[in-house]
Amino acid sequence: MRQLIMLLLCTVFTVSIASAQDAKKKKESVTFFIEAMDCDHCIKKIEKNIAFEKGVTDLKCDLTTRTAVVTYKTAKTSKTRLAAAFKKIGMEAVPVDDGAGCPVPPAKKK
What we know:
With 110 residues, the protein is α+β, with helices and mostly antiparallel strands. The protein has a domain of 74 residues: 2-Layer Sandwich (Alpha-Beta Plaits), CATH 3.30.70.100. It is built from 3 helices and 4 strands, in the order H-E-H-E-E-H-E.
């Protein structure tokens, strides 16, 4: 009986560790529209700074659509923190829903 209980406890412990590790590995991608991104220098500035933010695992910039797709670990950072990182380098980054195709830039304030 004691061996059965020990085996059961070891199994539960192993499963809980495995599920905790899976949560740490969870990644998401977000597409940001960056109105100020208008040249190769801007892309280099983003790649030099945002790619090294905590939790970022991949970064792809597209100058023609003025977007940056950032893949990140959800346990390490968030969309809000990434937007703040863009703001630190002088660029306003707005998350967009690209499910319908091309992102729509936000309306300019007058």
